[in-house]
Structures are given as C-alpha cells and as structure tokens.
Amino acid sequence: MFNRNRCLRQLAALASISLVAGCGFFSDDDSDAGPIIVGTTSAPSTLDPAAAYDGSWELFRNIYQTLLSYPIGATTPEPDAAESCEFTDSSNRAYRCELREGLKFADGSALDAQAVKYSIDRIMTIKVPGGPSSLLGSLERVQARGDREVTFHLKTADATFPFVLATPAMSIVDPDDYPADALREGTSVSGSGPYTLKSYKEGDQAELVRNDNYKGYAERRNDAVTIRYFGDSAAMVKALKDQQIDITYRGLGSGDILELQERNNDSGLQLVENAGTDISYLVFNPKDPWAAKPAVRQAIAQVVDRASIAHKVYRDTVDPLYSMVPKGLTGHTTGFFDSYGDPNADKARDTLTKAGITEPVPLTFWYTTDRYGSETATQFQELKRQLEATGLFKITLKSRPWKTYVEGYQKGEYPVFGRGWFPDFPDAENFIAPFVGEENALGTPYPATRITDELLPRSRRESDRAQVAKDFEEAQDILVDDARLLPLWQGKQYMAASEEISGAERALDPSTIMMMWELSRKTSW
C-alpha cells in the first residue's frame, strides 16, 4: 500500500528540484483519503448468516468467509477458507474440504473444522422460515475430522453443492459468539473475511476495516470501506454528485442511468455496466382465497404488459422476462409468452368466466419501499393501471420497508407481493429450487412434486450443467401452467462512481455481489 505521508517527507527534500523541473507529485492514496464510501439501497435485514436469504449477503461476502468463493473471472467456485475441495465418490454424495492452515477469526481465535461444522449445523437447527436452510436440502450431515478436514455427506447426488457452499449463507462464524440454537443479537459480528465490521448502524451505515488475520484469495486494494444505506435512489445519487459517497451499487434509478449515459462523463462521474441475471417477479399466496385460484393467476398473466413496464417505468434499462430462468443461463425459455402471447383482456375475461368469476377480482398487491430502487412504487402503480383497465380486477397497493416487509411475507400475510432475485449462484436451478417445496425462500408453500422429487434430483446428478437444459425447460412449463410465480423483467447491473475510483468493472462476482476489496482510488503522479 502506497504511504502518502512517507512520500511527502521524501518529496520535501526534492521540492526545489521538482519546482525547477516543473513536475507535480500527488497521490490519492486510500489510507490518507479515508475509506471508500459505497452507497446502496440494499440494507441488510440481519447480521447473522443463519437468518439471511436476501441482500444481507452483500455485506456478508466482505466480513465473513466461506469455504469456497469466486475469484475474479471465475464462474465456478474456488477455494477461499478451504485449501482444496472435491467430491470423493463417483455418485457426488460426499464432498470433502481441507482448510487452509492457520486460519483465524478477526479477533485472533482459531478457525478450524469444528467451527465450519458448527456454522452449517446451526443453520439447519435454527431453520429460520424463508431462510438459508432450504439451500441445504440435500445435506444429511457434516463430519469434522481433526483441525482441517470437513466432509459433507449428502442424502442424494448434488453436483450443485459446491455452489451452495460458496453462498454467503454458508459463512463461517465463531462458535463462542453464536448460539447453536438461536440467532445472535446485537450489531457485532465474529467472522474471518477480508474486512471486519468496525461499526454498524441499522439502516444507516456499516464501517468495514481491513482484517489483518484474513487468509484467503482476496487481494485487498483498499484498507477500509464504508457502506451507506439509502431509502431511495434519488438521495443516493445526490450524495454521489455532492461527493459524499464514491460509488453507488444497487438501486440506481433509470433516469440517473440515462443521464450519465447522455452526459458521457462530463459530470466527473463514470457509469459502469455489467451483464445481470437479477429478476423481478410477483408471488401469489395460496392462503389468499383469490390468489389461490388458478384462473385468477392465469388471467393476470394474460394481461400484464412487461414491455410497457420495461419501457415506461424503467426506460428500457431492463428487459421483459417471460421465464423465471433469465437469459444467459442454460435452460432459459420464453414460456409465459409462448403460453399467453401479447396482453389480451378478452382472453383473460374468458379464463375468469369459465371459472365462474364474473365480478372484478379484489386483490392487494404488496411491495417494499426501500429495496429495489425508487421505480418499484411506479412499477406497482403501472401494474394496478394495467389490471384495472381491463375491468376484471380491483387492486389495492400497500407497502412496507424491507425489514418488516420480509417478516410479513414469511408469515404469509400478503395475497400478492413483489420480489427481486439476485442469484445465489449462476445456474438455472437457483431460479427454480428456492421457490418450490413446502419450505422455500418465499415463505409460501409451493408443492410441485414433479419438480422437487424428480426433475431437480435428476439434474443434480449431472456435473455437466449444459446437459440439464431439458429438465429445467420442463420445470418451467410447470411454473407457467401454475402461474404461482410471474416473472416481470431481467435487469442489468449499473454502478455510478467518481472518476477517481477504479475496480468497479471487476468488483462483481457471478452472483452480482460486490467484492469491496477490488475498489481503489486512482493514484496520479
């Protein structure tokens, strides 16, 4: 790390030479300029990995450590806390990892195989509704042998299990600080990631500083990062323009994206665009008497105009999506377009009439106010307009901040609600498996035995993921017929940053989680 103070002392002795030569020396070294400040609209809902199956992972990736992760350019998991990992049998049912030697948590206490076992076991013991335990459905037991060897014994073959271990849900925690059968309270964490959490104020900011005990693949290009959480994109972008933050991530508004594109860096800011596999979709709750009716769901699927949402609300910074599996992944289809075609109110009316529904259907649509960007409210207003324009529906809109919003959908309180999904790992399975089954990430039971008992288990036996396209296509046909989940659009990843910041173009892993250690300030001479 470049030391500006030392450099300035050296330059003082050369001042007369520098002035005569007409040379200027200056540096924007991180340690002297303070932490890099990242703005986002995606605040954590919890600090305990056993509870989180949401955007909390963006913080976890930087302060906790997992056995496997994604170095720059990797699309499959590679060792992080582990030195090596591999399936030890031909049936993909025993997965063994050997830890790096001398691992420590940030406070200096030892991180060993027992800590790994403890961390995974408590996820399955606590089993938070809608939490990450659903990712471990194929896991039978964890075996720790000695200080460095951990073996995961699986109930069935699961070629995707290394991807699961690479998710921040599988973060390793200190057994001395995290109860075995309850979530940890408070705002402190005990991890072994590239940074340690110096301070945390819920909904406001997280201060990250370098963890000197970290041993892993990350090469940190800064000493400290502060993450500031914003309730809407307008406030976040204003903070960027006012130089109160250095870079934005998650929640950048479409208007701001277009403005930056048009100004072509004249503003002193840069726009970084990355391909994205994040999606937006609606969830229908079978506990609600109206949302439980297939005809109601199918009629809504028949009239929702995705192209209008993408154009009018998001100004073409997102693409219409007709499948729960986004474009770019093996298994993507256009099932909802193939089955329903263009929006058609007459067809929707026929569907409802055949089911004996002749009066406008009353439904309440819920959305979160501070998670997916300021356009979320406008998107739901557009959905309400589209549905009510047919005369077939009467829509009431309600909203909550993310933390209470999560609690509500996990309790099954919402008839219809909006969700966004950022992939746990880059595989079609991750856009199907988390949403089906009696216990899933949405808190709304979705029994789909053909998918859960046949298609997914069969696909998990195949290490070559290109060979499972037909299984995922069939699974999506089932999702289209049920219309329990209604995809709306697929997004891209945009970041706006000061021209002084570098590394944004390489800072996203395949799950579109920001690796804060890749960010740095440009140093000039």
UniProtKB/TrEMBL annotation:
Keyword Transport tagged: yes
InterPro entries on file: Peptide/Ni-bd, SBP_5, SBP_5_dom
SUPFAM superfamilies from the UniProt entry: Periplasmic binding protein-like II
Domain Solute-binding protein family: 76-440
TM segment ranges: none
Major location (coarse): other
Keyword Signal: yes
Keywords: Signal, Transport
Signal peptide: 1-21
One matching Pfam family: SBP_bac_5
Subcellular location: Cell envelope
Entry's family note: Belongs to the bacterial solute-binding protein 5 family.
The protein's name in its UniProt record: ABC transporter substrate-binding protein
Organism the protein comes from: Streptomyces flavalbus
Lineage summary: Bacteria, Bacillati, Actinomycetota, Actinomycetes, Kitasatosporales
